[in-house]
Amino acid sequence: MAEQTKIEWVDHTFNPWIGCTRVSPACDNCYAAAMSHRRKWARFEPRAPRRRTAPGNWQQPLRWNRKAEAAGRRAKVFGPSLADPFDAEVSPEWREDYLRLIKATPNLDWILLTKRPLVARKFFANRKVPDNLWPGITAENQAMLDLRAPHLLAIAARVHVVSAEPLLEALELDRYLPGIDWVIAGGESGPRARPSNPDWFRSLRAQCAAAGVPMFFKQWGEHGQDMRKVGRRLAGKLLDGEALRDAPVLSSRA
Ligand code: SF4
Questions:
Q1: Which of 45, 69, 199, 251 gets the highest tally of CB atoms within 10 A of its CB?
Q2: In this predicted structure, what is the pLDDT of residue 253?
Q3: 3-state SS class at 28
Q4: Nearest atom in ligand 1 to 21's CA
Q5: Domains in the chain, start-ordered, CATH in brackets?
Q6: 98-128 pLDDT tens trace
Q7: 197-203 own/partner pairs: CB under 8 Å, 24+ apart
Q8: Atom 7, ligand 1: which residue's CA is nearest?
Q9: Could you say which residues of the chain have pLDDT below 50?
Q10: Distance 27 CA to ligand 1 centre (A)
């Protein structure tokens, strides 16, 4: 079992491109689509062009990497947050560029969450997954977990992540937990947020504890533990008064 540490969610967020297509219930209230629509970045529709971010933005992770190396402390990067890294409609060259960037930043651990793990599985079928690339899936309900987890676990990565956010029903993780290294969970944000039942998070906590898998509870979202809509700030980040902030760490540098 991986060594564990208590952390904040991530140190940095990186978007190599913007734009996507909704594929499952977790996408219903996609904040990236709403933000992108407001700012006219990209349309979140099938066959709509994705927008690559500026070259200067692509330089940032190189700076984060140098800083992490100088500090002697690995940093975590989440991204993309405004796209899906394994969106089949993205230019293959962009994804290759992204993989090159991840390989060039060995002091960063990259968390790439996807709702398209079959595309990821095919992408890595003839490529080595760098140790510092942690692929993950969104599992907002049991059907999506059962659909996505087998593809995730077929990827030969050092760390496999399941993100139960926004959690829309109870999950039975048990049969997958031997291959899962980190579970992240949380409620939904935004004006149309759906509430999560606290028992769903308690169940995940119990399953992870029994299996020795680190779990990170990010936030309640708009609804608090009593399922009333109170706003993110008041809803907070504690489950039964406890901060669940465990995460795996790589035992040596990638
Ligand atoms: S996969 Fe992610 S970025 Fe794409 S539409 Fe769904 S929630 Fe939004």
A1: 69
A2: 47
A3: coil
A4: 5
A5: 4-248 (3.80.30)
A6: 999 999 999 999 999 999 999 999 999 999 9
A7: 197/170, 197/227, 198/225, 198/227, 198/239, 198/240, 199/170, 200/167, 200/169, 200/170, 200/171, 201/167, 201/239, 202/239, 202/240, 203/170, 203/171
A8: 27
A9: 1-3, 5, 253-254
A10: 5
